[in-house]
Design brief:
homotetramer, Arc Repressor Mutant, subunit A, Tetracycline Repressor, domain 2, 2 domains, 10 helices, DNA-binding
DNA sequence: AATGAATGAGCCTTCATTCAT
DNA sequence: GATGAATGAAGGCTCATTCAT
């Protein structure tokens, strides 16, 4: 990871390297990306990577960590209040908003897509701190909506269906634009997308809950 | 592409190369994969790639094409009969069955995942003849279920939500296994998964249709 | 060399191969030329080279032999009559005419230039039959002009000066055209070039002979 | 070209590479020469070529440039004084001396021969600054000797005859040694060769001048 | 903290050649 | 006599990494 030196200049170099590396890794992938191109964009030289990150792979790991930790999604997910349906809606909205937030590095989705297609050790390292807590939170909300009678497997599958829809927007924006040109992705569309996913998922969740309840009664 | 010669021996060599290349490209990605490893597994030598496919990238293109054309998904999607809800259910079942079909190359999902994260020219080449017809068929079924009053954007978003759920199982099986261990993926589970996605999606579609109809009446 | 089979078809294939190989070897040089390009132009396939000439190098040797034996220069040089100055003029004229003869393969000069810059075993093989007799003839004429008093070294140097001028037109036509655009090389110019070389050389030879004679008298 | 860095160590490596490359390119030609052999002789490794010259061809271009710029021939040709005949004699002497100068790389002639037989882009690059000025100087001297009445074409042809004789010694030393063993090339012979070429050429030039003058008077 | 020089490893590609048909 | 298939060998080039400054 990042070295421990506290120099402002050193930290600035690290930041520039991660920023440039994020772009290049996203455009080319881990192996096709070259340190030459990364350091050219960062305005440093190749040896700087070695100095600050030891090697190419640790620079990539830093990029992955940054991609997963720089959004709002990474914080404060447990302190939400209100009925579970509202919290699910808020969570989905936050995820989608992050995905299209122009203030966040645009390469985040692609990096995550790469890790999804071909997980590296870098992903493993951030699984425990960043992904799993988030996932537990989502599972808890879904469980709350479905009620205690739902099997753990059902809760999992429902959550997966929700997560899948969000991820679909995060990665593969290119394909999406080609296949579904109507689903425009402008700034005003972000809330609509979030609303659609929430509507779609809550409708399904309510139907499942109804069925669970009715099946109990009939027994 | 594959050369046009019809010799049985030549075709067999091509087949072995695509099979081996599929594995290696899936494991390592386009750039990290080496022809050495591919030809070792195929039992040929590196020059054979040049002879049959001209270069590494055209071999990769052949692999992508094979990944998208070898399942049942690629055929016969328009000749289904019956009410649209049944056809959607059948379609989803076919997709999921393909995804877990042990007779199909297991690397298909990963290759598609790679292309999703970082589309290459190879994908573009199969877009028109393989992906778009399939997509049009799905859109048509969803449109039929929602009725003529649904906007094109709504149809698109609904379809995307369905596609997203299927794709989630196709790619990123690793992550999935880690985050949702309950959603076991054994042979008997395949039908359950398909049933879940169909239930989930149809519940949402029906809710949307109801809302479309009620909103008309109230106006 | 060429195989001994007498089939008309076989001979025709050999001829086409030599013709095509001459072009390609001249354009690219021995090593940069590929059998692929040669056989493409000859309308055969790579294995034909192997069949008729055993390997690439023997095909090249056949080309070198053809380049040196197809002009008039290769024949009848000893049967000329008349005073030696006329015979030298005729010989030079024949050489220059050959160089620009459109009926002869245009790649002859370049092939000879390659051999001059970097002699191969192919040249050695034609030295004895083709080049040395020709050279002996030229030396004899020069000796006749200079008279018996000239040293062998002087005869050699004089002959070299003559040969050098002819060779200069044979090889490096490109450079020549660039450096001396006035010395136009059209059909009518061929005789002029030959006349110039003869005038130039004979003037020098006569001056040398005069000096040899006068130096004897003064002694 | 050679990179612009001024580091002494870098320059030394470049020098060693050019020296070794000159030898190997001369022995084998541009295409048959391998970087392996070059870097073996230079005591570096293959990647050094990439670092200092980018690729094989630019190394070759540097060799060509060095071959044409390292002799005395490349400098000070215009500041000669005295009557034009003396200056021509001096120029020829300088050229021939350079050709046999043991302090200069022995591969110069062969490299130039290769370029003459098959000009590459490397030659084009040195044409304007190295070859053309030299050629203009030679043309000027010849014009001065022949007088203003000589046509430009005559001046060109005369100059070509002189250049041809010099080039003949520069390239194709192998052939020369075989065909004209008497024209020995030892150190003491260098001046003799230069004297012969000057004598031969001046005799021809004087004869041409005489003819020009007499033809005027008779008209 | 940063940089220019240098290098070893490895990859894709090309090509002449061989073989079976 | 000719051709498609296959292959071993080798070459040029790229790149991450190390080292001295």
């Amino acid at each position: 990871m990042v070295n421990v030196k506290d120099n402002a200049s050193s930290r600035e170099t690290c930041r520039k390297l991660i920023e440039a590396a994020g772009e290049v890794f996203a455009e080319r992938g881990l192996h096709a990306a070259t340190l030459q191109e990364i350091t050219d964009r960062a305005g440093t030289n190749k040896a700087a990577v070695n100095y600050h990150f030891h090697d190419k792979f640790e620079l990539y790991a830093a990029v992955v960590r940054h991609a997963l930790s720089c959004g709002s999604m990474a914080h404060l997910i447990e302190d939400m209040e209100g009925p579970p349906e509202d919290r699910l809606r808020a969570l989905i909205n936050r995820i989608i908003t992050d995905i299209f937030d122009p203030a966040l590095p645009p390469w985040r989705g692609t990096i995550i897509g790469h890790e999804l297609a071909q997980p590296t050790a870098a992903l493993e390292a951030v699984m425990t701190d960043l992904i799993e807590p988030h996932n537990r939170c989502q599972l808890a909300i879904v469980r709350e909506i479905l009620g205690p009678r739902a099997s753990q497997q059902l809760v999992s599958q429902m959550t997966m269906s929700i997560v899948a829809q969000c991820l679909f927007y995060l990665q593969g924006k290119e394909i999406l634009r080609r296949l579904f040109p109507e689903a425009t992705l402008d700034a005003s569309g972000v809330d609509k997308i979030a609303a659609h996913i929430a509507d779609f998922s809550l409708a399904a969740l309510r139907a499942a809950r109804r069925q669970l309840n009715s099946s109990r009664r009939t027994r």
